[in-house]
Input
Amino acid sequence: MSSQQQCPHKKTASCTHCSKVKMLAYLHNDDSIVWFSFFKDDKRYGRLEMISGEMGSRLQKKHGENIKKMMFFDNHTPGKPIIGEN
Ligand SMILES: [Zn+2]
Output
């Protein structure tokens, strides 16, 4: 995915298939959150660790102390190997 126009699923911001990073987070109130990286961040940061960092700080801003655990996965590699967690 080098630009959003290339998503064959017609998504404009992020896509369960085309986004580079999948994030899974658990909150202390027992909610869980799944995010797929924004195409604009995939393009801007390029490296999976950088994209993950951006997603993590966005989650922090939104949920702060309520975050129990965050995990980041390489969404394009079969088996979705973990990139990082905290
Ligand atoms: Zn797509």
Observations:
- Residues 1 and 18 are 6 Å apart (CA to CA).
- The longest strand covers residues 67-74.
